[in-house]
């Protein structure tokens, strides 16, 4: 049985449509070349957050991996580009434990995670995932605090809703456009 995947898929993900994924792809290709992994597919997902909502495009990655008859290296730029949700790790763990999947992180000091990884190696990956989750949760919390603060000052905390325009700069009063 092979322990090391020779074939790989690159996964690049941007949480918003304006987040650039090309640098991630470049970094992952470089990693694959240095690791001797032949890339068969590059999956770029834009506008799908790892922190909110369902991830339809991301789930297609697992479907693609299951089509191969050999271990596949899933290569991503950093841990937060893969997942920040513990429940999403379940499918990756199932595929990894059966030898179908290896996880490779191009830009973090993590050993590839595969079927025969030690508990210490697994815990290092899970710690990265928890750190990514905490980072996202902290940003979300900071944004909500800023919105509350702006409302307290009487300011609208962003762009006016569709069909309205801001009537006064320092007031949350809105005026209907039509």
What letter string, H or E per element, gives the SSE order?
Answer: EHEHEHHEHEE
The fraction of residues in strands falls at 15-25%
Rg, Cα atoms, Å: 21 Å
The name CATH uses for the topology of the largest domain is: Rossmann fold
Mean pLDDT: 80
Shape: elongated
Total tally of structural domains: 2
Structure description:
- This protein has about 180 residues and is an alpha/beta fold.
- It folds into two domains: about 110 residues, Resolvase, N-terminal catalytic domain (Rossmann fold); about 45 residues, no CATH class.
- It is about 40% helix and about 20% strand.
- It has five helices and six strands, in the order βαβαβααβαββ.
- It has a four-stranded parallel β-sheet with strand order 2-1-3-4, with helices on both faces. The protein has a two-stranded antiparallel ribbon with strand order 5-6.
- β5 and β6 form a beta hairpin.
- The mean pLDDT is about 80.
Q: Which descriptors apply to this entry?
A:
single chain, 178 residues, alpha/beta, Rossmann fold, 2 domains, 4-stranded parallel sheet, two-stranded antiparallel ribbon, 40% helix, elongated
């Amino acid at each position: 049985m092979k322990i090391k995947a020779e074939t790989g898929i690159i996964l690049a993900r941007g949480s918003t449509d304006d987040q650039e994924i090309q640098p991630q792809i470049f970094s992952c290709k470089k990693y694959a070349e240095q690791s001797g992994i032949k890339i068969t597919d590059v999956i770029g997902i834009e506008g799908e957050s790892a922190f909110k909502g369902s991830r339809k495009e991301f789930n297609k990655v697992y479907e693609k991996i299951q089509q191969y008859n050999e271990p596949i290296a899933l290569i991503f730029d950093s841990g937060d580009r893969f997942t920040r949700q513990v429940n999403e790790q379940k499918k990756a763990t199932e595929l990894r434990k059966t030898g179908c999947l290896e996880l490779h992180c191009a830009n973090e000091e993590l050993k590839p995670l595969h079927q025969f990884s030690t508990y210490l190696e697994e815990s290092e990956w899970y710690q990265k995932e928890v750190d990514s989750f905490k980072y996202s949760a902290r940003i979300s919390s900071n944004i909500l605090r800023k919105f509350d603060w702006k409302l307290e000052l009487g300011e609208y905390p962003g762009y006016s809703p569709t069909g309205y325009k801001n009537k006064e700069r320092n007031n949350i009063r809105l005026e209907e456009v039509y």
